[in-house]
Fold these 3 entries.
Entry 1:
Amino acid sequence: MELRDYIAIRRAYNLVRQTYPRRSRMTFAEFAILCHMYLFDGSLNTTEIAKYQNVLRPTMTHRTKHLSGLGLIERTRGDNDHRHILCSVTDEGRAFVQDICEQVCAILRQGDALRRIEWERACRYIEAMGSLDLKASDLVLLGIMGSEEGTTVSSLVDALGLLQPTVSMSVSALMNAGMIDRGRDGARRLATVSLTQKGRSTGEELCQGIDELLVRRK
């Protein structure tokens, strides 16, 4: 997968997510789980889903409980081993996947990247992207990497579809980690951010992970 396509879909999802009430919002990782289960079209236990996202089972238990609380998946105990929790998509969850993916496509069609994509294809993109667990700070790092030298926080907000406080906190965390430097655009009198060598090396590693993502065909 190309970096520009990854950023475009993450941005579109972030913008769609903000239109929902705070209590019913879900992270990109959680929505990717829903897409994964929709495409699998059967029951999966939490261990299998955790393996898909390369996270520990307690993390997956937390994520699936949230999806279950929203009525999008059903969690039941296995017949042979009650320690195993089986998850399946509800009818409401299936309708939700289509609705969100259609909204994502509507935003994508406003730009150049993936502008002809249909909702089912978007679902497969998101499912593939869900196997790479990138946080907001990772997305900001990639946003800086994919922009012109000396980008601003407001430019990152527009490019990534994240809220301004989220971008600002991520910038501070990246600065503390030695991955970005602050500067100033003298002409516009705006604060800017740019990658350090450490930040660029980390960004290249993230890009390699994105390059290796494979979007399954129907």
Note: The chain has two domains: 3-129, 136-211.
Entry 2:
Amino acid sequence: MITFMENTNTIHFEGDKPEWFYAVGEKYRGPFKAAEIYQKLQSKELSWIDYLYREKEGKWIRVADHDVFKPMQAAPPSPKPNLAPPPPPVADEIKWFLYQNDAQTGPYSTTELRRLVQSSQVIDGAFVWQEAFSGWKLANEVNELKVEVKPSMPTPPPVPVSKAFEQNQSQKQTQSQTPSDKRTAPRKPLVAQVYATNLSALITGICRDISVGGMQVLTDHLPGPVGTSIRLNVTPPSDTGLSPFVAEGVLVRILEDQRGFSFRFTQISEDSKHSIERYIS
């Protein structure tokens, strides 16, 4: 039986007698009483990881594991309180889907979708959806976007010009066009999500048309000047029959309004080429 002496720093062990030995390196010391062993623990002469021997057990036992001294160890720390739940997702984490021109693209963050709207890549009559909605909503009626959707306008007829001026402009365009910029393959409209990288930044955009040799991408962040090498990750809608693909190439032309570029493939898989050919034909 162990009794703590009131107002003292000692413990009374009932029937205590000198029967304890403790190890010191390869030697041992003793015999000591249990009260003396406890005092040595208090004075740091012994630690809880040292070993004790008593004839009753007939083997060396670590102090911390011995039934006589185990109750004297400090109580384990109380369990940690339950952690607070993580903060709710911020608005930019909301994933949006866009439906326009008979094609669905996404998901987009709020920032990405606003950028598409601001760059006039979302037409009047386009629909958007996110998990908080019960159904699709017109993009220009969603308050979260907080931008005015530019209506799609019919293309005006060309301004009348003289034949001589028209020929002069055609010659200038031919002279300024590099061989890599000339279209050598038929193109077909395609609305597809595009991620472009120049190895220092990631840019999102929308494909406008595609050919076996390249594609045109609409975006409000250009990956660089003409001649910049970039890598594209393209995700076409499933109803086009085109599989997602990755292509490497070079930027060959900046659109006049600075909101897009033309891209020529320099590396694309044969399967992706055949898939594009089938789509165009």
Note: The chain is about 15% helix and 30% strand.
Entry 3:
Amino acid sequence: MKSIKNLKIGFIGYGRVARVFVFFLKKKGFQIKAISDKKMKNFDNIKVAKNCDLIFVATPDKEIKKVYLEIENYLKPNTYLGHFSGSLPGDILNWQKKKKNIHLFSLHPILTFGDFKKAIKYLPKTYFALEGTKKGKELAKNIVKEISNKYFYLNKKDKPLYHLMCTTTNFLFPLFYLTFQIAKKLKISKKTLYPLVKATIENIFEKEIKKIITGPARRKEKSIINLHKKVLKKYFPNYFKMYDILTKTIMEIVKNR
């Protein structure tokens, strides 16, 4: 394989993840030769396939297979073809049985890309999950080494479980949405909660969860829990079931503490 910085790189899809990666790759001296996106005037996936040595498909997961089928017959021999999906394998079309000269990989950063500036800030500290063919994984590893040098390999069969692990962090959003709605109801700035939240997150990653849980569920204070349920029913009834499930989960976690 020639030097990765001499490879002609193309992106199909130019959303949040692609923008961050293009920024970093350009900064590191990589050659970004083509970008194709439905929202761009120069939208041409076939052109990317014909002219690039390394192609990142950065579309939503549901469109990746469609893109692969579209560009399949236009790829050059020994092209490196990968995507950023956490749930799909690199070889989603089982190409290795018929196309030995296309090197496939998936490269998934364990990071949220909701904010460009924060993604730029945290990507160098981010771990990457790599999966694919032998040469595909080698290429992905070398790319990651230029960004964060933090990576591990996944088996193809484990990708759905791995993706579930990553996406469970999304459950924080409805929890904090409720928290901020209550603060708003009380006319309290959500900034007042930041020290509490930050200390909680730090404790979660530094200590065993069942040893650091606090609150009425841990202490089995049924009168307080019932009081919470009463005000939830009054002000935020849609969250009653969630509160009940999470309270019981906390009790289960600390039961054998």
Note: The chain has a mean pLDDT of 93.
